[in-house]
Design brief:
This protein has 180 residues and is mostly helical. The chain has one domain. 66% of the residues lie in helices and 0% in strands. It has eight helices and no strands. The model has no long low-confidence stretch (mean pLDDT 96).
Length: 180
Amino acid sequence: MLKDYFSKMRGTTKSPPRVSAAEIAWSWIGAFLGIAAVALINYRVLEGTDLVMIIGSFGASAVLVYGAVKSPLAQPRNLLGGHIFSALIGVACFQALNPNIWLASSVAVATAIAFMHATKTLHPPGGATALIAVIGSEKIHALGYVYALIPAGDGAVVMLAVALLVNNLSKNRKYPEFWY
């Protein structure tokens, strides 16, 4: 029984082949432009406000929407729904379970994953978006449910717009694979 359990950890397939230099370049260009757009809005447009536009989970979203464009986890429904739903869940958990941050953190991430599964919006960075709502700065906490719109929603929309533009420039790329 234990042998069968541990044998599953060996894996069942070989590592996928390397991607081409062109694929690497397009991924780099998309990630650069996507994060640059969100960061510029954060540091130029929202400077001096209590709003924030850039959060750490967008780095992971960049990997998916610019580097793994065919992945079901990188599609628009997943990008937008994953961030927005997870942000709402994270804020609710912070407000309901604060000051037990350890509990709020674990409930937020687990609930976000379950909700994303149930709504077909699974986007791994959404787990980080939920966690940031709980462990983020006072600036994040002060946003309350606005956090789901700015930065989670608006930032994801900006990254989606860049993904639509950049990922379709190459004749070998097509994005999205599906919307719904």
